Amino acid sequence: MKNQVKAGAWQMSEHVYNQIQELKRFVDFVANLEIATENDRSKGEEIKLLMGTIHLPRTRKHWQINLRIHDFDVHRQVHPEGQFRRIWSLVCNDLGVSLEAESNYCDYPEGHTGSDFCFYDSATFYTPHPEDPINFQDGDAIDFVNDAMDYKKYITESLNEVEITVETY
Questions:
Q1: CA dist., res. 7 & res. 23, Å (int)
Q2: Residue 9 falls within a domain, yes or no?
Q3: Domain, as residue range, for 47
């Protein structure tokens, strides 16, 4: 795979392609959780096929898959403070592929909301400097998948509503 196709566009390096293939473990994991529907499993298989051909621009399609843990009482301000969400998200769009893991908390009496943990990484399909594309950092995909697969360690008495999204568009 070459790094340059034309000005402003590039074909992904083998390193990035391999990292994206590693993320198939996340797709498998989320799409096969107990709460997943048959449609989620089917979309998961479609996403894995798209990931396999992601280095071919004509085969790209938008997709996303995420795993979320919520505490809806904190989010709706029934309880005044605490962590209300932990999310792992993998998204592909026209610009590239991004991974994000984040925890959000609320402190309503003080009026603050924010993140106590935020991880973000991406690989772009287009860049102003094709000779220097933005790529995933070494190990990020593996660490992201391993952390998501260990999601139960983040579940607490109140942070316990698990949801998933598996979609293509």
A1: 28
A2: no
A3: 14-168
The answer to whether 109 touches 80, Cβ cutoff 8 Å, is yes
Q: Is 31 exposed, middle or buried (0-12, 13-18, 19+ CB in 10 A)?
A: buried
For residue 6, being part of any structural domain is answered with no
Q: Strand ranges (DSSP E) for 4-111? A: 63-70, 81-92, 96-107
Phi, psi (degrees; rounded to nearest 5) at 35: -80, -5
Determine, yes or no, domain membership for 1.
Answer: no
The end-to-end CA distance of the chain, in Å, is 27
Domains contained in the chain, number: 1
Tens-place pLDDT, residues 87-107: 999 999 988 899 999 887 666
- Lookup result for tokens 């070494």: 138
Q: Model-level pTM greater than 0.90? A: no
What burial letters (b/e) apply to 6-28, b meaning 16+ CB within 10 Å? Answer: eeeebbbbeebbebbebbbbbbb
Calpha distance 32→155 (Å, rounded): 19
User: Which tens digit of pLDDT belongs to each residue from 111-125?
Assistant: 444 556 678 888 877
